[in-house]
Amino acid sequence: MIRRKNNEQIEGIRKSCSLLSRLLTEIRPLVQPGASLLGLDEFARDFILRHGGRPAFLGYEGYPATLCLSVNEVVIHGIPDERRLAEGDIVGLDSGIDLGGYFSDAAVTWAVGRVGPEAERLMRVTRECLDKAIDAVVPGARIHDISRAVFRQATGAGFGVVRQYCGHGVGLEMHEDPQIPNYVSPGPNPRLLPGMVLAIEPMINAGTGDVRLLDDDWTVVTLDGSLSAHYEHTVLVTETGREVLTSWRF
Ligand code: MF3
Ligand code: CO
């Protein structure tokens, strides 16, 4: 069942999303060579708590942190540890906030210092995947229109699309219906209607789209060891199109 949010709920989700956007804006300058992953996680947790929110990932199915920090060949769900970022890394930073029962979800991939041309191209194309996917959000369109937009942009650039993990509805819980695959799947293809709130999140690999799970049961890495990028926005379907709720300024 896909929940369509009423105006009061949308207002709550919008506030949660703008707090998450502020977190991303404030943490960006800290993402530098030498930064420790645990330090970034602590900053994010303190920021969210200080503003009256609850880190939505912390404790979710036992997840131990506020952020997912996914470095280089890590696709998603990298657990922050003592590791430090190094010049040339790319790091995916994914987080969510529960603000008064309203959930936001967003992710970015950032360069640490100067990175190589392949990393730059992967990040640009994955951002384009998200942009095209967002353009496909109009009332009356369908989930597969989002999926197709991501898939075309990624494969057109010669990159691999991760199939094991999807975007999702969000807002009153962290994960709601519908699932939003990044490829055109045989699964359900519901129509988009005003009031739906979607977390759209392309996960794109420089090599093949195949992934494997590490022994910690969280960390997802590319099977071929290639780089991976991930961007995510929380998006509201409006009467005329869409509103990106987690937009940020850098
Ligand atoms: N941001 C992830 C998603 O989009 C959720 C991370 S799972 C968690 O679904 F356990 F880390 F919270
Ligand atoms: Co998500």
Please describe what this structure looks like.
This protein has one domain (7-244): Creatine Amidinohydrolase. The model has no long low-confidence stretch (mean pLDDT 98). α1 (7-27) packs antiparallel against α2 (37-50) and α3 runs antiparallel to α4. The chain contains 4 helices and 15 strands. The strands form 4 sheets. It has a 5-stranded antiparallel sheet with strand order 8-7-9-14-15. Strands 1, 2, 4 and 5 form a 4-stranded antiparallel sheet that branches. The protein has a 3-stranded antiparallel sheet with strand order 3-12-11, with no helix packed on it. It has 250 residues and is an alpha+beta fold. The structure holds 2-amino-4-trifluoromethylsulfanyl-butyric acid (MF3) and cobalt (II) ion. Cobalt (II) ion (CO) is lined by residues 105, 168, 199, 201, 232.
Shape designation:
globular
Counted by DSSP, the helix tally is 4
Q: Would you give the CATH topology?
A: Creatine Amidinohydrolase
The strand order across the widest sheet is 8-7-9-14-15
What is the chain-wise order of helices and strands?
HHEEEEEHHEEEEEEEEEE
Bound molecules: 2-amino-4-trifluoromethylsulfanyl-butyric acid, cobalt (II) ion
Structural domain count: 1
Please tally the β strands and state the result: 15
The CATH H-level superfamily is Creatinase/methionine aminopeptidase superfamily
The largest sheet is: 5 strands, antiparallel
Question: Approximately how much helix is present in the residues?
Answer: 25-40%
Radius of gyration: 17 Å
The chain-level mean pLDDT equals 98
CATH architecture term:
Alpha-Beta Complex
